[in-house]
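User: Can you predict the 3D structure for this chain?
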Amino acid sequence: MAKATITMDDLLAQAGDDVKQLTTGETIVGHVLSIKKHEVLIDLGARGVGYVPRREVSFSRKYDIGDEVTASIVDTELDNGFVLLSLKKAAKDRGWNEVAAKMESGEIITVTPYSANRGGLLVEYEGVNGFLPVSQLSAENYPRVGSSDKDEILQRLNALVNKEMKVRILDVDRKANKLIFSEKEAVKEGIAERFEQLNVGDTVKGVVTGVVDFGAFVNVEGIEGLIHISEISWERVNSPSDYVKVGDVIEAKIIAIDKERLSLSIKQLTEDPWLSEAEKFSKGDTVEGTVTRITPFGAFVQISPAVEALVHVSELGGDGTDPEKVFTLNERKDFVVLDIDKDNRKISLSLAK
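Assistant: Here is the predicted structure, written as structure tokens:
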């Protein structure tokens, strides 16, 4: 009886997966054979040795000799007989699947930004490069500075590089190579709970995170608060930076609550000195005061440390009188109290004869 003829295809089939023909783009599992400055060699068993150039190594993890790794085949056979592999591509392929699953579940994950630009933070997660925009930072980390001060914005963002941050994945689009993170979304539930515990009239403590022309931003346990310039002091405030600095720990009163922000007041934690000082004056009194501002409709006069009164243009003796022709800044004159309106914190004056 003649022997059956065994073909090469039969031998390959009997050998199983270990010696099946390699295919470009295929994912393959091997073990780290050696690690050098410019390359990593991978033991692929019966399928040979894989060569990974430095540019194709994913440095989001540390490799040791003997580690099992998954690689993508770039070229099935180089001139030296090695298989050209990419660890980075394989990691990225797995990473896209991972980030899609994380977004679907809404899971909070930990990331570490590796760089920053004026638009936000650059983040690599599971081998995939992503972005955390400034607009998606929490109140604690948002760089509240003047819109024109781009250098300070970048400086604040650089301070977050290499720091762990809790985020949620906001958007994933593999075709567009887009991965967007949000820190705001990660803290949203906790902030909602804190909002429920706060009421108008409460006194809270917070850290000043930004000082701008119109007021100061404050981080109150992760919730953003704003102290408008008019709520900083009972005195006239020309510049909020004269009263608070970034990093200051302050106490303030909640005067309004909306969905995302608290409106705060420092001055309302103390009694309005205007009210007590206004008690010293009565209608018809002659008082001495200093001209502090001159406007087309009259002049403002300081008659005590906390009380500024108005001499209306109608009190200057005829229509069309120019207050600048009557008054000089910082001059002292005698005035007569015409009216005191405590509800609106206004005192009206006329020139004493």
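The chain has a mean pLDDT of 87. The CA atoms of residues 185 and 351 lie 60 Å apart.
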